[in-house]
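Review form for a predicted model. The reviewer records the input and the model, then writes brief findings.
Reviewer: anonymous (R2)
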Amino acid sequence: MTVIVIMIAFRWLMALGLLGYARHLGEHRVTVDQSGIGTVSERHTNHTNWEFYGRCVEGRRVFVLLTPDVWGAGVLVLPKRGLSAPQDTERMRELLAAALIDQHSVRAARKKGSDQPEEGPSGAGAVRDA
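Model under review:
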């Protein structure tokens, strides 16, 4: 019983620490384009290329980008409320699908030892409803 309480307390303290860090960074502005995802806050600027992400899951209110590793250790949550207009959701879906399909074909070509990406819809299911 003590171990369970310690585990719960540890996770709760980790969440509080992360929330404190997010508050320290201030409000974030995220830009998504063909080159990747740019994040700007009051304290830092970061740009992540698409090759960092391997898949995307779409929920009712968010897009969740995951790294291609088995555990999905890298996660980026993009809330849909940050989009200016309803049609932007479809544009975002298309951009994510195109970028992740391209990265999937590049990874597959690297595994085969080729410099040319694979042709075809190998990653067509990159963006889907969760």
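Findings: The beta strands are 29-33, 36-40, 45-49, 55-58, 62-66, 75-79.
Further findings: Residues 47 and 85 are 24 Å apart (CA to CA).
Recommendation: see findings above.
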